[in-house]
Specification:
Layout: H1 36-41, E1 44-49, E2 52-59, E3 68-69, E4 76-77, E5 83-88, H2 95-100, E6 103-105, H3 107-111
Antiparallel strand pairs: 1-2, 2-5, 3-4, 5-6
Length: 118
């Protein structure tokens, strides 16, 4: 019979790190509380518009720490103000270049922007 190359399971009451119970990966301690607001803020969504495809991420008021200039109204997006971070998904030079040219918009400026071409 061929020999198995899998490691054996530790005996009951013994952790993977030694003789101490709970010393392994599982049961090492209580799980940290999940911050749902922070988790939802990091997810970018794709929006299609007449001016292209955009990736839009919500920046919560708690995470907004710097001042930015909104391209929609040319006024400041102040620290502590919830806003949107927007970048081109279909950038000519690739996704990394689109991400490097991301802009911070007021939520109302982004939703009410017009698509007139000059």
């Amino acid at each position: 019979m061929p020999r198995s190359n899998r490691p054996r399971r530790p005996k009951a009451g013994r952790g993977a790190a030694g003789n101490a119970p709970g010393g392994g990966k599982h049961g090492a301690g209580p799980a940290p509380e999940l911050d749902l607001e922070r988790a939802r803020a990091g997810i970018a969504r794709r929006e299609s518009a007449p001016d292209g495809d955009w990736m839009v991420r919500t920046m919560t008021a708690r995470n907004a720490e710097k001042t930015y200039i909104c391209p929609g109204c040319s006024t400041g997006v102040l620290p502590g103000i919830a806003h949107l971070v927007v970048w081109a998904d279909d950038h000519l030079f690739g996704a990394a270049a689109g991400l490097a040219e991301r802009r911070h918009w007021h939520t109302n400026c982004w939703t009410s922007r017009n698509f007139r071409y000059r």
